[in-house]
Amino acid sequence: MFISFKKILQFGTQYKGYAFLNIFFNTLYALFSALSFVSLIPMLNVLFKTTEEQLTPAKYEGIFTLQTYIKNSINFYVSEQLIENTEGTLVFVIGLVLSLFLLKNSFNYLALFFITYLRNGILKDLRNALYNKIITLPIHYFNEKRKGDLMAKLTSDVNEIQISFLSILELMIREPLTILFSLGAMFFFSFKLTLFVLIFIPLCGWIISSLGKGLKKKSSQVQQEQGGFLTIIDETVNGQKIIRTFRAGEQFKNRFYKSTQRFYNFSNQLLHRASLAGPTSEFLGISAIGILLWFGGRMVLLDESIAGTTFVVYIGLAYNILTPAKAISKASYSIQKGNAAADRILEILNLENSLEDAKDSVTLKNFKNSIVFDKVFFSYDNKPVINNISFKIRKGEMVAIVGPSGSGKTTLTYLLNRFYDINKGVLSIDNIPINKIKKKSLYKHIGMVTQESFLFNDSVLNNLLLGKSNASKDDIIDAAKAANAHKFIEELPEGYNTKIGDLGNKLSGGQKQRLTIARALLKDPQLLILDEATSALDTESEQEIQHALEKLMLNRTSLVIAHRLSTIQKADNILVLDQGKIVASGSHKQLLSDNKHYKKWVQIQSMN
Questions:
Q1: Beta carbons of 277 and 213 less than 8 angstroms apart
Q2: I want to staple 407 with a disulfide (CB 3.0 to 4.6 A). Which of 215, 222, 280, 403 is the partner?
Q3: For residue range 547-571, what is the model confidence (pLDDT) as tens digits?
């Protein structure tokens, strides 16, 4: 049960100094928590004039008479002070009580003060580790997982860790020590009575903890369902146009209502079970006090083996044990709930990345010669997509790929970006297998412009700086001008500092695409990949973008997918794909006269 908890606590290693300070002040808190109750005895004795008169100093006769020695010493001091100054003695014993309670609460604050850094530090590092893992996971992971579920793990699961796991860090030292010191004081007053307490309290704890069984499963159901309706919310926000035009609002409402109903049911089951902890522990606690009053009352009234004022303080110490004992018992509920959240988080953190850099990988300093696909095979979920493809892209060449939808064109760009590893064959850059090249150095040389012009909810400037954070202002403006973007950027409300909204939705399609081209120009990559960069644009915007792309491709090695016919004609080599195979290759003129697939594609382009 504690394996997940231990793994989460490993994130607190660098904050161990705060942990030690917390333990130190919690130890003092627990000690003074017991002493503050013990200090009530002389005050009660003075108030009720029940102090045993002790006119001679106590004599120490060994460890076995320590209890009697301490008791007689206190009685001697109080008796002496009462004779000399009754009011002064009362002020003194009250001051003693107040001082001890002040120290107890001061140490409690300091313990909480230092553990705050530990708790929040663990949360910060846990979030950072999750984000770092997510940003390095293979692309296929995000194709298989629901976005909402991922968001739930990053938000609500981490919050559950804070509420369920990290909240009990304070209990781990403070409550056991409070019980230990209080028991020590109770043994000092009455061994027989304390033995009774030790038998009864663990029984209460066992009853409470047994109620927590099954909370982990129910908590997991709640978190998973929360991921479900977060996914629906994300799809609703991003798919508003489709939902409205297809009049699918009712369908989505029904999906969302069903998800929230399941969340409602699971949450009720979870909270009903968790809510048993408070009333149950409260009743068992008062039952323990009731039985203690009966058992101890007999010792006061019949046996007279313990003084009345001492027994009153003893009850206070017993309550001082019951409170942390209840907290420890209820902590089992928190651990059960926290375990479910921790397991979901650790599921991500423990994922193995099959695309991590190999130990013998090398840095690609420059692209000098060629890119070679040699008998390459690739499949998605055992479905062949690339089938025995071989071709070469020499430095400075422009290679175009055409073919019907689903023929594998975009997949080739994914393989070249190493978003996926090939199943068979060799894909190399300058005779270095791509899986032996450090990915950071690979991406340094690659620039990509896709059909979906992805922009971030930030300023124009920060979107352009994505590939080259240290670019000068002149470099930025030059890239924007080359992409035919500078003019419209200057006309924006705040120019280059204008926020462009989620996915750049404050801009037109042509403006967004020109920004992505400017971003690629600013990066100045040696290898450029264009994946249907103008297919979603109108004719006027396409012509503007085309001029920008031609500037972008100038003197670069380019891999271009199904671009305008005018661009394809200029390609050094054109590959015709069909069902994952190269069915023809050559120049525009060669293919136009020799290949029916290409001729058909040209005819379709001409009609458009």
A1: no
A2: 403
A3: 777 777 777 898 988 666 767 788 8
